[in-house]
Design goal:
Length: 119
């Protein structure tokens, strides 16, 4: 574990930086790095990322809200509450789909996102 701490710190800094810049960091940054750098299994990386995102998102909301007044709490709740249904469905689906398929779908989504941002 001590040898992985520096890599975990780099992953955390990148995920936090991307969360602050773009509102993302877990799925797009943390999960791939946990899998590629530390050899996490896809499901373990996803769960670890979700646990970390709770802390990252909480701090980001405070910084944006208190520091910059850029948080619309009502719209956040309107988006967040129904998203819970998506989380429950996605989590249940992830447990039934082969890990290789999850990785492939994730790669396609990341590639499509990259293409849409460039074009």
């Amino acid at each position: 574990m001590p040898r992985t701490l520096p890599r975990l710190a780099v992953i955390a800094i990148l995920a936090g930086g991307f969360s602050g810049l773009f509102g993302v960091g877990g799925g797009g940054i943390m999960v791939p790095l946990l899998v590629l750098w530390l050899g996490y299994e896809e499901r373990e990386a996803t769960g670890t990322s979700l646990a970390a995102i709770v802390i990252i998102a909480g701090v980001a909301v405070l910084v944006y809200g208190i520091g910059y007044g850029k948080v619309d709490v009502v719209k956040g709740v309107v988006i967040g509450l129904p998203a819970v249904a998506g989380v429950l469905a996605g989590t249940a689906l992830q447990q039934r789909v082969p890990t290789r398929a999850i990785s492939g779908i994730f790669a396609v989504v990341l590639l499509a996102s990259a293409v849409s941002l460039v074009v």
